[in-house]
Amino acid sequence: MTDPTTRRPVLVVAIAPPAAGKSTWILKRARAHERVNLDTYRAFVADDEGDQSATNEAAALQGIILKGRLRRGLTTFVDSTNAASRRREELVNVGRQFDAFTVAVVWDLPLSVCIERNRSRERRVPVEVIERMHLAIRTEIPKGPVPDFDVTRRIGTHDVRFGRVPAAFTGAAWLR
Fold this sequence. Notes:
By secondary structure, the protein is an alpha/beta fold. It is 40% helix and 16% strand.
């Protein structure tokens, strides 16, 4: 899913609290190697994807892989909460270094849906973490497009897209 003429990469950034359905959505649209995920890299480093003490090393691994893929013009999905504006800005800046087409996918789900989904997960996230991230995303991100991204897609009670998808991205039917 790159522009066949310029091999312009696509950087897709998920933005949602834990248990919103990010990984499920991404894994239906991306091959496993197109996805970068801090939980996966925490497990590589610490044998536990929930071990927050391994986040710095996990982020370093994610950065190496992300930059390597974008440098080669490859589509990459960032499967993390990305609740902090600072983190989203960092990702957009990395994308811009490689002339990537940047896509924000925001889950606009009620908090109750995330908490209910969390109950059915094997690895549960503390409810207060879900509440905090849900509030941060709702507070920091306007209802329209996410600042600095080329396109914003919102998933929830209404599936809405802001921005224009270039015709070159013919393989990105999920984005339209």
